[in-house]
C-alpha cells in the first residue's frame, strides 16, 4: 500500500470516525458568502451541527470544477471584496474562538501563486489551517505546492475521478496525505437526485491502492445520499446542497438553519 501521512487534526479525525464506525461529514462553505461576518457564524454553526471537517472555499473568478451554486457564491464573495487573506483570517478567528475541527481551504492555483506559496504555507499554518484542496492542480505537477505545505505540516489533498486511469490512481495514492477526494461523477459540483451506480466499483478500484481515508464529493445533497456514500467511503462532502439551503433562509436565521441542516446530515453518517 502506498501513501504517507503526518500527524494532524485530519488524521485524528478520521481515526475517531473510523473507531465510531461512521463516515466523516465534510460540509463546504464559501469564504465571504453571504458576507464575511456571516461566514464566521456559519463556521461555528456547522461545527456545532456535527461537521467533522470543513472545506472553506476561497473565492475565485473562474472556478472550473464548481457548479452554478458554488460559482454564484464565489462571485458574490468577490463582489464583497473577499480575498485569500480574509479566508485565512476566518480560520485564525475560528481557532481563537476555540474551534477545533480541521479546516481545509479549497481554491484554485492562481490566487495561491499570487499570494506566494511559501508565504501561504507559513500564514496558513499559523492560522490553524490544516491543508488545501486545489482542483486545477494535476497530481504530477503538485510538488511545487506539496513541498512547502508539507514543511509546515499542511496536507495537499489529491483528487481522483471515475475516469482516472490505473496509472493516475497509482500516482495519486503515492503522493496523497490526509485523505483522497474521490469525485463521484464526471462534471462539476452541484446537487444531484441520485448517486452513480458505478460508485462502488470506482471506490473499490481506489481502495486497492491505498489505506488512506477516501472521501466522496460532488452531488451529495440529502441524508439518503450521505447514508449511501457512508457505506463506500470514510468521508462525505456536502457543498451545493448546504449553500442552497442557506439561501432559502432569512439572513438572521441562516446560522441556525445551517446547524440544523448539518445535524440532519451528520445523523445519517451514524454520528
Please give a quick description of this structure.
With 271 residues, this protein is an alpha/beta fold. The protein has helices at residues 9-19, 36-49, 68-79, 84-96, 109-115, 117-127, 143-151, 166-175, 199-207, 223-230, 240-247, 254-268; strands spanning 24-30, 54-57, 103-106, 131-133, 155-160, 180-183, 214-217, 235-238.
Molecular structure report:
The protein has helices at 9-19, 36-49, 68-79, 84-96, 109-115, 117-127, 143-151, 166-175, 199-207, 223-230, 240-247, 254-268; strands spanning 24-30, 54-57, 103-106, 131-133, 155-160, 180-183, 214-217, 235-238. It is α/β, with parallel strands linked by helices and 271 residues long. The protein has one domain (9-268): Alpha-Beta Barrel (TIM Barrel), CATH 3.20.20.70. α11 packs antiparallel against α12 (254-268). Mean pLDDT is 91; it is low at 1-6 and 187-193.
Oligomer: single chain
Largest sheet: 8 strands, parallel, barrel
Number of H/I helices:
12
CATH architecture descriptor name? Alpha-Beta Barrel
Structural category: alpha/beta
- State the CATH superfamily name: Aldolase class I
Write the topology of this structure.
Elements: H1 9-19, E1 24-30, H2 36-49, E2 54-57, H3 68-79, H4 84-96, E3 103-106, H5 109-115, H6 117-127, E4 131-133, H7 143-151, E5 155-160, H8 166-175, E6 180-183, H9 199-207, E7 214-217, H10 223-230, E8 235-238, H11 240-247, H12 254-268
Parallel strand pairs: 1-2, 1-8, 2-3, 3-4, 4-5, 5-6, 6-7, 7-8
Amino acid at each position: 500500500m502506498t501513501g504517507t501521512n503526518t500527524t494532524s487534526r485530519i488524521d485524528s479525525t478520521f481515526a475517531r470516525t473510523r473507531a465510531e464506525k461512521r463516515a466523516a461529514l465534510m460540509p463546504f462553505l464559501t469564504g465571504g458568502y453571504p458576507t464575511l461576518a456571516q461566514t464566521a457564524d456559519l463556521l461555528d454553526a456547522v461545527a456545532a451541527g456535527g461537521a467533522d471537517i470543513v472545506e472553506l472555499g476561497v473565492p475565485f473568478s473562474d472556478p472550473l470544477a464548481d457548479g452554478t451554486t458554488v460559482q454564484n457564491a464565489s462571485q458574490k464573495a468577490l463582489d464583497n471584496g473577499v480575498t485569500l487573506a480574509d479566508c485565512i483570517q476566518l480560520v485564525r478567528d475560528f481557532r481563537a474562538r476555540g474551534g477545533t475541527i480541521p479546516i481545509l481551504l479549497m481554491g484554485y492555483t492562481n490566487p495561491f501563486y499570487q499570494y506566494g506559496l511559501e508565504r501561504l504555507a507559513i500564514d496558513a499554518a499559523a492560522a490553524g489551517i490544516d491543508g488545501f484542496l486545489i482542483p486545477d492542480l494535476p497530481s504530477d505537477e503538485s510538488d511545487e505546492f506539496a513541498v512547502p505545505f508539507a514543511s509546515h505540516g499542511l496536507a495537499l489533498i489529491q483528487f481522483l475521478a471515475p475516469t482516472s486511469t490505473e496509472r493516475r490512481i497509482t500516482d495519486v495514492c503515492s503522493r496523497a496525505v490526509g485523505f483522497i477526494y474521490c469525485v463521484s461523477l464526471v462534471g462539476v459540483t452541484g446537487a444531484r437526485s441520485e448517486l452513480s451506480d458505478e460508485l462502488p466499483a470506482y471506490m473499490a478500484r481506489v481502495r486497492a491502492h491505498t489505506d488512506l481515508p477516501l472521501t466522496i464529493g460532488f452531488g451529495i445533497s440529502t441524508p439518503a445520499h450521505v447514508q449511501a456514500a457512508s457505506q463506500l467511503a470514510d468521508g462525505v462532502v456536502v457543498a451545493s446542497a448546504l449553500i442552497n439551503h442557506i439561501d432559502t433562509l432569512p439572513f438572521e436565521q441562516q446560522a441556525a438553519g445551517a446547524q440544523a441542516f448539518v445535524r440532519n446530515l451528520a445523523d445519517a453518517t451514524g454520528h
